[in-house]
Structures are given as structure tokens and as C-alpha cells.
Write a structure and sequence with these properties.
Layout lengths: L15 H23 L4 H25 L4 H6 L1 H20 L2 H28 L2
Helix pairs in contact: 1-2
Length: 130
């Protein structure tokens, strides 16, 4: 496996605090999964998945910030992407309230399909090209 520029590839043993944090995250994740099994699907599922995504990304951010895997210049470079994402989320929320559920699902599925194809093409290019 090729090393990515600027990212350490060595494997270090986990400290006691890191192991405790991982166990806590697993416990929270399994707790949400348990709630999913007890609650009716639908809105509760979406809310639980959003919470899981937020917790996962927060953990990823904290880990990268703590370990120093990403420098300040790289964090600052993501600010325009944060602004674009915030604007598109707000726009998507407005569009969602104006469309009926069937049309919204159709457009959402199309957008997700396009993203999946782009990711597959990116993977294929990185895997077999060059």
C-alpha cells in the first residue's frame, strides 16, 4: 500500500486513553443501533444515522487534530468547502419543502447514484491507472 504524502503510515500501539475512547464510541454506536431496533423505522432511523455520522466525523476531526495528521493550512483550505456545503444544505432544505415526497426521493436517488458512479470511477482510476 502506497503512503500518502504527509500522512504517517506506521502503526503505533494504542494508549489506555485511546482504547477507552474507542470502547466508549463503540458503546454509543451499539446504543444507537439498539434504539433503531426498538423504534419504528422512518424519521427515527434518519435521525439516528445523522447522529452517528456527526459523532463519527467529530471523532475523526478530534483524532486528526490531536495527532497532527492535518496541518493548519489544510484545515483553512477546507473552509470554502464548508461554506459551499452549508449553502447547499440550506438550499436543499428549501427545495425539499417545495417538492412532493416522490419527486424529492427521485432526485435524491439520482444524485446519490451520480455520486456513487463518480466514486467508483475515482477508485478505478486510482487502482488501475498510472
Amino acid at each position: 500500500m502506497a503512503a500518502v504524502a504527509g500522512v504517517a503510515t506506521e502503526v503505533r500501539p494504542l494508549t489506555r486513553a485511546q482504547r477507552a475512547a474507542r470502547v466508549a464510541m463503540l458503546a454509543v454506536s451499539f446504543g444507537f443501533l439498539g434504539l433503531l431496533l426498538l423504534a419504528p423505522l422512518g424519521a427515527v432511523l434518519v435521525q439516528a444515522l445523522n447522529i452517528c455520522f456527526f459523532v463519527g466525523k467529530s471523532t475523526q476531526f478530534a483524532t486528526l487534530a490531536t495527532v497532527g495528521g492535518v496541518g493548519a493550512a489544510q484545515w483553512l483550505a477546507t473552509l470554502p468547502l464548508v461554506a459551499i456545503a452549508s449553502v447547499t444544505v440550506l438550499y436543499g432544505m428549501r427545495v425539499r419543502t417545495r417538492l412532493n415526497a416522490a419527486a424529492y426521493r427521485m432526485w435524491l436517488k439520482r444524485a446519490l447514484f451520480v455520486m456513487a458512479v463518480i466514486l467508483l470511477l475515482q477508485y478505478a482510476y486510482l487502482r488501475w491507472a498510472a
